[in-house]
UniProtKB/TrEMBL annotation:
GO biological process: ammonium transmembrane transport
Membrane topology note: Multi-pass membrane protein
Domain of life, source organism: Eukaryota
Record-given protein name: Ammonium transporter
One Pfam family here: Ammonium_transp
Cellular component terms per the entry's GO annotation: plasma membrane
Alphabetized InterPro entries for the sequence: Ammonium/urea_transptr, Ammonium_transpt, Ammonium_transpt_CS, NH4_transpt_AmtB-like_dom, RhesusRHD
The organism of origin for this protein: Lactuca sativa
The UniProt record lists the keyword rRNA processing: no
Span of domain Ammonium transporter AmtB-like: 37-454
Sequence intervals crossing the membrane: 37-59, 66-88, 129-149, 156-182, 194-212, 224-244, 256-280, 287-305, 311-331, 407-432
Primary location recorded for the protein, binned into one broad class: membrane
Length: 488
């Protein structure tokens, strides 16, 4: 094919390529450009919750000697999950059914497949693959929060692809795929209260059990090295939740708007509830406590975001700011069993318990007409309270059944993640130790990576040379004045 190039733009004539240079299917009739644009934006917002959101939050929330390792665990997981996701993870989660809880292995990298319409939504598979990837990635990064400060980084490198393959994909297919076992039963998990938060909370706590605790002095005193940095990460996490819950209708719709508003209302209510409880019982307004309350609110509303009324979102915020507070501040401290497991970032409370609470409250509060907007079915999805309010025997039966399905989903996710996480940890342990040596844990980042987060002291000199770093005593030329400077 040959053509004459268009005349250069002269300020008055618009520059345009000939029509036959554009592929005819670049914007097929089935694609909605607004939905596609919103879905890509939502995916990017969720991705930014991890990179840089949780990288910054973890890096600031741990002891100084663990800042690099904690942030790097998040960065590594994000990259590894993406590669695994396009090669096999996406199809295991959303592809053709192999068994009622798992899809068939296949790749998602071929142009023909990626440009076809997604299984839901008026946009191509490429958009859906990317959108679902960022959810898978953040799940692994949340698990990392439970084992910060002692897990062998090489063990983490193996854990990530294995857990993604044998645990996450099973939960995602079962609950989110259109042919999954719990999906066809009618479970409501709007945006990942089960698949992401309950899964990561249970898996993180289980992994923490197998990895073992931090050093005793680290468990007793583990102050954040930079609370302001931690707050910046928390802010990215909160604002990123606009895409987390707003992207799950797979359309730039009114339901997406409702989900976004409910998400932020619940998070704010939960934060304030946690803060008030801290002030009442500990006489201090804790910044760290406020962040915990924010997270539990965001987690709790996630399975219900677009299917509950605004008043329900406020009630969910009150409960998510108080029940996980009670389990963390009272129950955990009195339970010998819970004390034995060293859960660094308290993912059991902020994700497993808050996710369970959200799943149960979804079964209570979900509104039939909102569920119809989201799922497209009339009367199949109905919370217990709306069913009781309608009063008919059929409505009550629907509501009771919904609660039963929600509870069954919780039990399934808990069992799945305890079993699969344990098997993955035991397998990894056959290859490399799950836990760093006590000597390396004394040192932290420099032992693990030969690097440290805050290396500058006083007037620019290093406090001391590191015997682990590859970058000590390197002479760097100074171009301006000649000579060299020694990095020490």
């Amino acid at each position: 094919m040959s053509f004459s190039p268009p005349a250069p733009f002269n300020g008055t004539t618009p520059f345009a390529f000939p029509p036959n240079l554009l592929p005819s299917d670049a914007s097929p009739d089935w694609m909605n450009k607004a939905d596609n644009a919103w879905q890509l934006i939502a995916a990017t917002l969720v991705g930014m919750q991890s990179v840089p959101g949780l990288i910054i939050l973890y890096g600031g929330a741990v002891k100084k000697k663990w800042a690099v390792n904690s942030a790097f665990m998040a960065l590594y997981a994000f990259a590894m999950v993406l590669v695994c996701w396009v090669l096999w993870g996406y199809r295991l989660s959303f592809g053709d059914q192999l068994i009622p809880i798992w899809g068939k292995v296949n790749a998602s990298v071929e142009q023909k497949y990626l440009l076809e319409q997604a299984f839901l939504g008026l946009f191509p598979n490429a958009t859906m693959v990317f959108f679902q990837f960022v959810f898978a990635a953040i799940t692994l990064i949340l698990i990392a929060g439970a084992v910060l400060g002692r897990m062998n980084f090489y063990a983490w490198m193996l854990f990530v692809p294995l857990w993604l393959t044998f645990s996450y994909t099973v939960g995602a297919f079962t609950i989110w795929s259109t042919t999954g076992w719990l999906s066809t039963m009618g479970i409501i998990d709007y945006s990942g209260g089960y698949v992401i938060h309950l899964s990561s909370g249970v898996a993180g706590f289980t992994a923490a059990y197998w990895v073992g605790p931090r050093l005793t002095k680290d468990r007793e005193r583990f102050p954040p090295n930079n609370i302001i940095l931690m707050l910046a990460g928390a802010g990215l996490l909160w604002m990123g939740w606009t895409g987390f819950n707003g992207g799950d209708p797979y359309a730039a719709s009114a339901d997406a708007s409702l989900a976004v508003l409910n998400t932020h209302v619940c998070a704010a209510t939960s934060l304030l509830t946690w803060l008030i409880l801290d002030v009442i019982f500990f006489k201090k307004a804790s910044v760290i406590g406020a962040v915990q309350g924010m997270i539990t609110g965001l987690v709790c509303i996630t399975p219900a975001a677009g299917v509950v009324q605004g008043y329900s979102a406020i009630i969910m915020g009150l409960l998510s700011g108080s029940i996980p507070w009670f389990t963390m501040m009272v129950v955990h401290k009195k339970s010998e069993l819970l004390q034995k497991v060293d859960d660094t970032m308290a993912v059991l409370h902020t994700h497993a318990i808050a996710g369970t609470l959200g799943g149960l409250l979804t079964g209570l509060f979900s509104e039939p007409h909102l569920c119809e907007l989201f799922y497209g079915y009339t009367n199949k999805y109905m919370g217990l309270f709306p069913g009781l309010h309608r009063g008919s025997s059929q409505s009550i039966r629907y509501g009771v059944r919904q609660m039963g399905v929600q509870i069954l989903g919780i039990l399934f996710v808990i069992v799945l993640n305890i079993v699969m996480t344990s098997l993955v940890c035991l397998f990894v342990q056959l290859i490399v130790p799950l836990r760093m040596s006590d000597e390396d844990m004394e040192i932290g980042d420099e032992a693990a990576h030969g690097e440290e987060a805050y290396a500058i002291w006083g007037q620019g000199e290093r406090l001391e040379n590191s015997r682990y770093s590859n970058y000590n005593d390197i002479e760097v030329p100074i171009k301006a004045g000649g000579g060299s400077v020694e990095l020490t």
